[in-house]
Each structure stands twice: as C-alpha cells, then as structure tokens.
C-alpha cells in the first residue's frame, strides 16, 4: 500500500526515516535533485501520501506531539500539511504546548490561526488537579480506597496546589524520608500525618526536583547533568559514548537507580526524561559559567569514541555540543576541524529538508574561519559559503543572500566556483518577483562567460531560421546517438548552459528580454 501510494518517491522518505527500509527493502535513490523550498514542499507532499496510505478505517492513526512551542518552521509546515488534508478521515493530530510561552506573534500561534481558518480545531486547556481528583490520584498510587486516603490527599493538594508533577515528587519524597511507609502486617500504606504537615516543599517543581537529584549518588547526578545538555531524550549508544560505558554489555547501577526513581524512562534503546522539568532541574545544577565547557566536553567525548560509521548518526548531537563551547577553542587546527563538522552537519540537514538547522550549522562553520581562510583553506571556505547561501535561499532569508554571495564572487578563483552562488542569487531575486532583475543578472554573467545574449527582439522569420539551424546540426542522428556524443568539458560552457537553463522559466514570463 505504501509503495502504491508513494511510488518511486519512497526513497525520499527512507532517506529521512531510515527504519522504513525494513518495510520497503533496499531501494535505488530515485529522488529528483531539487533543493530549498521545493525539497521541503516535496517531502511534505510525499509524507502526506504516506500517512494516507497507512491510516485506514481499521487502523487509524493518532499522532501526538508534545512541546510544540519549540517546533521549528519546517516541522510546523509539515504539521500544517497533514492536518489540512481533509480527505484523510483516519488521521487525528493531537498537540500540546505551554500557553505561557506562546504569544500572538509566536510561529505556532500564527500557524494555528492559519489552520483554523480551514480546519476545525478543538482546544482543551488543562489545569491543575482538583481536590477530588487528587484523592483519586493518591488512592491509585497507594492502591487504597479513596475514603482511606482523604487526609493525605488533602495535605498533598494543599502543599502542591494540584500540580501533578510536584505531587508525584512530593509523595516520593515522603516515602524516601520515611513519612510514608508500608506496613507488612496489615499489608497497606500508612503515613505520619504530623510529619507530612510539617514538611515544607519548594514553590515550584524545579526546586523540588533539584533537591531530589542532589540526594542521588554522584554518578547518577553526572549522568543526569550530561543528559540534560543533550536534550529531552538520548539513544542508548550515544549515552555510552558520553559516559564511556557500553550499556548493552552489562549493568549500569547509577542508570538503573535513576530509572527506579522515575527521573528517566527507558523506551527500547532510548532514554528520555520523564518530564521536561526534570531535564531543567538537572541542567540547573551545572554552574552557569561552566555550562559551555561541559557542552564542549560532551562533544569532544563523542568525537573521541564514535566510529566513522557511527559518527554520521550522531553528527548533529556532536556539533551542537561543540558549538556551545567554541569560545574555549583557540587552536586553529581544531577550529578548522569543527568548521568541517559544521559543513557536514549543515549539508546533512539540507538533505533532510531541515533548512533552519542547516543555516545555523553553516553560519557557525563560517564564524570559525580566520580572515585569511580563503587563502589557507580555500575548498572548505568555498563549500561553507556556497552551502550557506543556498540554505538562506531555502528559508527565504533573501535580505542576507546578497552579502553571502558577494563574498564568494570576490574570493572564488574561477567562474565555475562562483556558479552555485550566482544561481542562488538569481533564484532569490526571482523569488521576490523581481524577474527582470534576475534576468539582467543572468545576462551579465553570460556576458562574462563569453556567451553574450542579444537582447533585441527577434522576428518570427529569424526565430524559425535559428531553430532550423539547430535542428540541422543533429540531422540524421538518433536520440541514442545524440546521448552518446562526447560530454562537454569546457567549464565556462557548462556554466553558461546552467545559467541558460535557469533563464528559460524567467524569459517565459517576460514580454521583453
């Protein structure tokens, strides 16, 4: 069903979601070479067809995403594409976000407003647990009847304000400190009501979680702090890289303890924080003036322990960590190494259609270069600047493209090296509906290449004559014979052909050249 719906475009999905190859098998890369906005739109369209093919009346799909306030533009556009597919009745999207972090100008709010004009949106505003629900919550945790937990539940509610996370941690703290304990002879939980009432708790969840983390052994705190630097979740093998232990080969007591305490959840080969406030609490334990240094240490450990094959799958994590500590990197060779890694991460992000990330990586790579980088490391400088210009075009930051392209035009050695920048500039200008200006730029480049194009209008007879002359060159040749002709090798001629190919669409929309 998937192959029938998506066809040869399935290779685009497999590239973004490698695990799909378990279903589709090995595929040839039949993707069309497009980039920027075109690639993102294409991926969204293909993913929409994929969801439609697997979401059926007998197997509907519910997609839930948390923390939408942190979603980037590409992710929001994909969500928009999926939820606005009104033909698919077997797909439900559920999203959650913190409304105190989303104002009217926030990208999420703008996207929701746009979607709401075409598709009905059900909004559910969650609140803290009520007093009655808190009693149900406590009785469920202790496996006791609600009537027997009323006194404890009322205290928990009064001290936590009904905050579910704080209530959970507070109850665990009561057990840890002995105010809540299990009686074996009566086979039930009991508590010291006076001790519970006397127990003070911090005003917010983070402070309470900090207290809990500080009670853990140093190895457990170390793991939590390092994990908090990486994000909300971490692959098992990545955790092994930063801790120096191979988790699958044997027990890891500190990690087991963290899971037992409910701070981390293990889902298959992924470890994730049970709540984002736990991640925040762990991160807050790292002194502010030491955080960037810790990020750098994590990135360095990944570089040191990751194999060449493994490095591709952790490139984003490694570069993110290293970029946080660039102010501590003074060695020029190390800067060049990190600039290369940023180029690698940026190009991978481009291939996956995450263009905002690509811009950030490539800009970080450029910032690491010395002023004389074009003389010392020409190839790296050219690749970084060229890819950066393309990534800016991909997210529509047209105002910055001219400056990015100008550096390449001034510093590149030959016209062939300048060509990608020129093409990006032409596309960017045309995308702003300045087709005539784009055409003028292209004609100027063609002139520099020694292929001037006459701008005077041709008569019908002149055009027929030109077409006749062109056809005459291939008279008597089959298509196969034409394809077997020697490939063009002159770089200037190849560059001119690429410019002319780009021009065709623009000339079509203009009455005069």
From TrEMBL:
Signal peptide: none
InterPro entries: AAA_16, Hybrid_Histidine_Kinase, P-loop_NTPase
Residue ranges annotated for the Orc1-like AAA ATPase domain, each copy included: 37-94
Protein name: Orc1-like AAA ATPase domain-containing protein
Origin species: Ditylum brightwellii
Organism classification: Eukaryota, Sar, Stramenopiles, Ochrophyta, Bacillariophyta
């Amino acid at each position: 069903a998937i192959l029938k719906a998506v066809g040869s475009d399935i290779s685009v999905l497999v590239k973004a979601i490698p695990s799909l190859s378990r279903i589709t098998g090995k595929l040839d890369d039949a993707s069309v070479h497009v980039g920027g906005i075109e690639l993102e739109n294409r991926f969204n369209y293909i993913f929409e067809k994929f969801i439609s093919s697997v979401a059926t009346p007998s197997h509907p799909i519910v997609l839930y995403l948390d923390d939408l306030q942190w979603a980037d533009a590409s992710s929001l556009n994909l969500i928009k594409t999926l939820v606005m597919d009104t033909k698919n009745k077997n797909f439900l999207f559920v999203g959650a976000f913190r409304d105190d972090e989303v104002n009217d100008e926030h990208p999420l709010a703008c996207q929701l407003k746009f979607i709401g004009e075409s598709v009905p949106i059900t909004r559910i505003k969650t609140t803290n647990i009520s007093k009655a629900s808190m009693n149900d919550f406590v009785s469920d945790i202790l496996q006791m009847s609600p009537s027997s937990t009323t006194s404890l539940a009322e205290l928990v509610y009064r001290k936590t304000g009904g905050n579910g996370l704080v209530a959970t941690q507070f109850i665990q703290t009561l057990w840890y400190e002995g105010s809540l304990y299990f009686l074996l002879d009566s086979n039930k939980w009991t508590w010291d009501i006076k001790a519970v009432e006397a127990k003070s708790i911090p005003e917010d969840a983070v402070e309470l979680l900090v207290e809990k983390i500080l009670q853990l052994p140093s190895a457990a705190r170390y793991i939590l702090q390092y994990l908090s630097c990486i994000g909300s979740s971490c692959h098992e093998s990545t955790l092994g890289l930063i801790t120096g232990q191979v988790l699958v080969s044997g027990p890891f007591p500190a990690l087991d303890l963290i899971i037992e305490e409910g701070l981390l959840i293990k889902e298959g080969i992924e470890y994730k924080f049970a709540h984002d406030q736990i991640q925040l609490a762990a991160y807050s334990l790292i002194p502010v003036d030491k955080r960037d240094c810790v990020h750098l240490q994590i990135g360095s450990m990944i570089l040191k322990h990751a194999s060449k094959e493994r490095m591709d799958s952790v490139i984003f994590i490694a570069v993110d960590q290293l970029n946080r500590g660039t102010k501590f990197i003074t060695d020029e060779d190390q800067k060049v190494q990190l600039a290369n890694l940023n180029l690698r991460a940026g190009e991978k992000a481009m291939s996956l259609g995450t263009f905002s990330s690509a811009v950030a990586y490539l800009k970080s790579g450029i910032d690491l270069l010395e002023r004389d980088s074009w003389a010392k490391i020409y190839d790296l400088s050219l690749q970084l600047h060229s890819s950066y210009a393309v990534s800016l075009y991909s997210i529509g930051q047209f105002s910055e493209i001219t400056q990015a392209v100008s550096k390449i035009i001034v510093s590149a050695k030959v016209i062939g090296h300048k060509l990608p920048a020129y093409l990006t500039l032409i596309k960017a200008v045309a995308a702003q509906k300045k087709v005539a200006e784009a055409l003028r730029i292209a004609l100027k480049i063609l002139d520099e290449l020694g292929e001037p194009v006459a701008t005077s209008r041709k008569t019908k007879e002149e055009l027929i004559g030109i077409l006749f002359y062109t056809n005459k060159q291939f008279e008597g040749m089959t298509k196969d014979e034409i394809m077997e002709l020697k490939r063009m090798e002159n770089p200037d001629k190849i560059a001119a052909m690429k410019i002319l190919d780009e021009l065709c669409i623009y000339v079509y929309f203009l009455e005069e050249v």
